[in-house]
Amino acid sequence: MVGRIHIMGIVNLTPDSFYAGSRAGADHALDRIRMQFSEGADVVDLGACSTRPGAPQPSLEEEWSRLEPVLHRLSSGVEEVFPGAKKKADAPGNTSSIPMLSIDTYRAGIVSRAYDLIGPFMVNDVGGGEWDPEMLSTVGRLGLPYVAMCPSCATVEEIIAWFRAFSFKAAEAGLRDWILDPGFGFGKDLDQNYAVLRGLDRIVSAFPQEVLAGVSRKSMIYKKLGITPEEAMPATQVVQFAALEKGATWLRVHDVAAAVHTARLYSTIYTSSPGAAK
Question: Are 197 and 214 in contact (CB under 8 A)?
Answer without folding.
Answer: no
